[in-house]
Write a structure and sequence with these properties.
2 copies of one chain form a homodimer. By secondary structure, chain A is mainly alpha-helical. The first copy, chain A, has helices at residues 2-21, 33-39, 44-57, 75-99, 102-121, 124-142, 145-165, 171-192, 196-218, 227-235, and strands at 60-63, 67-70. Helices cover 76% and strands 3% of the residues of chain A. In chain A, helix 1 packs across helix 3 (44-57) and helix 5 (102-121) packs antiparallel against helix 8 (171-192).
Chain lengths: 236, 236
DNA sequence: AAAATATAGTTTGTATACAAAGAAGATATC
DNA sequence: GATATCTTCTTTGTATACAAACTATATTTT
């Protein structure tokens, strides 16, 4: 009976995490305790403990007297993100290159092949989760608990930003995705070669790609240009 | 009645935080739910929620089926700390210099005068808490939620390292403390002048001081030197 | 008709009781 | 005397019930 609820608790935990990362639960969404408790066969007591833990990790926000909500995202968040990401990610990849074990490199390669597969046939959610797993493994490789605290929070919004802005509806966005994929390959090579300088540089390139992607989405070619020109530009 | 327990909950939260920072609760110490619940006039349900929150912030660690413990510290932690601290703290102070409001600068000055006061007359715990508050305010000034996640975790171990290694039993350690205090003054000036480069450089100097302090403590002048010489060296 | 108050309904938060797991000590067996 | 097993005690984890707070709707009053 203890094992059963423990399992249910884990299932709830995983479900909420995935839901937040893939935007199945959107920023600001309320978490209805009663509904989730019944759905996962738990009473509210252990459910609330899970919510507390997820709040601690940055997935949820607790408001006194008002229950839990999915952590909000604003353009301030976006700004904070791109200010911190290159630095943290650079540090993580540098340390990953220095410290990765053979076993970890193996999991990283497995994550990457899963990511590639998701590019060919998966949904946006599949791709986001595969990408998330890839980066999570680099975090483990680095193994610095202080940086990991920032990094894991970055990964949450990394996934949500990816779900929002990476929609390969035109060829340029698709190109960006395959560029991201080859970055992953390069990252693996750098880590395998213990080349920490190269790994750190790749981190920056990887985030610049993301930034460009968001620029494409948020600031598309303006409509006051002749339409033919704009279309040519986006499909280039 | 709701207000009452809310107050007790906050008191427990604050007490645990301070106890961890000042080593009143030492790394690895067990948190006895029954004892704390009775002491703070709470039942175990809200108490356990507080423990979850503190675990999320890095003060405690939860072990399944074994309750909560104060987060452990090893020399790996120390290494991780000095690897991450200069970078994170540099970034925090840079952003603080860019973004600090007049009101925040006022609180920072208040925290600094409290810190100075604790140097003259306070206990090691008072000094540690005052120092902690000073740095916490710089974190608020920076206002980047991703960096803050790493920074607040660093501050926990910063305090604990300070409690362990900063014991001004000889004049050199006392000198280090007054150097730390004047660093704080310089940091305030840099932030007030919105000089982010200066602020970032001060961060590095501040951590180098800490590192020297720990070297002094962990690697004292060896006893195989003639004793007279060693004593002269430490009291210089 | 608009505003204010009252009332029902929903949701959050806490206490208590119980069940399960773990720890420690005692007895028994080799 | 040492090891192993059984029993008791302590501690952790969960469910349920209840109380308080908040929300929304309806009724009343101006």
């Amino acid at each position: 009976m203890r094992d059963r609820t423990k399992h249910y608790k884990q299932a709830l935990y995983d479900h909420l995490k995935v839901s937040v990362l893939t935007l199945a639960l959107r920023p600001g969404d309320d978490i209805d305790e009663a509904v989730f408790a019944e759905t996962f066969g738990l009473s509210r007591t252990p459910l609330r403990e899970v919510l507390r833990e997820l709040a601690g990790e940055g997935y949820l926000e607790l408001r006194a007297g008002r229950g839990a909500r999915v952590t909000e995202m604003s353009y301030t968040t976006l700004r904070d993100f791109f200010l911190a990401a290159p630095m943290i990610y650079g540090a993580i990849l540098r340390l990953a290159a220095q410290n990765a074990t053979a076993e970890q490199i193996k999991s990283l390669k497995a994550a990457q092949s899963k990511f590639k597969k998701s590019l060919r046939s998966g949904s946006a959610a599949d791709r986001t989760l595969a990408n998330n797993q890839f980066h999570e493994i680099t975090g483990e490789m680095a193994g610095n608990i202080f940086l990991l605290a920032a990094f894991n929070r970055l990964l949450i919004d990394h996934a949500r930003i990816g779900m929002t802005f990476y929609r390969p509806q035109n060829s340029q966005m698709a190109d960006n995705l395959s560029a991201a994929s080859s970055h992953h390959d390069d990252i693996i090579s750098a880590i395998e070669a213990q080349n920490d300088d190269a790994a750190a540089q790749l981190a920056e390139a990887h985030w610049n790609l993301s930034r460009n992607q968001i620029e494409l989405f948020v600031m598309p070619s303006a409509l006051d240009i002749a339409l033919g020109t704009a279309l040519q530009q986006t499909s280039a």
